[in-house]
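Handover notes (outgoing to incoming on-call)

Open items:
1. DNA polymerase III subunit delta: sequence verified, structure written out, both below. Nothing else pending on this one.
2. Nothing else urgent.
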Amino acid sequence: MIHLLFGTEDFLIAEKKKEICRVEGVSISSFDMRETSLTSALEDAQMSDLFGGKKIVFLNDSYFLTGDTSKKITHDTDALLDYLESPNPDSTVVLVVNNEKLDKRKKVVKELLQKATTTFEAKPLYNAEKWLVERCKVYGKTLTRQAAVIMQQQLGKDLFLLDTELTKLVLAVDNPTISEKDLEGVLSRTLEGDVFKIVDHVIYKRSEALEILDDLFRLGHDSIQILLILAGQFRLIHQVKAIHELGESPKNILKGIHPYRISMAEEQCQLYSIEDLQQRLKDCAELDLQMKRGYCDKVIGLETLILKWL
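DNA polymerase III subunit delta structure tokens:
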């Protein structure tokens, strides 16, 4: 058998590799194709297992199947073409490509796509909510949609992180259903998630904004990085406000932005005029310049800006 796994979502590739190992056999060899020649790896695939069982041979980072022109090692792709014609029935070869595209102009890629037992593309998930809900079922529990929305909003789209946090929730919650309330005190904090909370507190004039900011400083987060995320969120709110004033729907225009973030921005923009939001963005730009030129203490500068907005 020959499996071709490619794409940029490392978690999905890792899960597919685990699935292959569960199904196919017990003896496993693994090669880094930036350090091992293709010929050597395929020789291992052609050799029978010492104990007569089946074996799996992983060819990790098979960059020679992409347009990558770096050549740390020269690969004889004809050796792979020969193997495709006469594969070892006791070996499963898994070619792993950590790239979103294969170079389909190459003969070896064309042959692989035709003869591979399976071709698996690990695409980044635009919306991880559905994945979270389905993943939770694997652990024997139900995750509500709203809880999934909040998890993605606070943690981002890193599936390794989302899976780790989901595992924590499954262990921490006794009920068969994990709801929005169950997330409190269990989810790990992220910089982006905390900055979103700061924006929300600022908009509704709540002093908790300063408390979260102080926490971020204690955790060692950089003021400029916090300011950039802060400015990005106000930029989104400004865009949503401007689109509404044109009589259009932000969700139809702002492609690539999670619908939950747009919905939040739609609520938040009601409390501001276009001029107010433009002033917020101007404040961020001016402070960013002052910080980078050393005209102010970064921590005091950011705290002063938040106080000004409250």
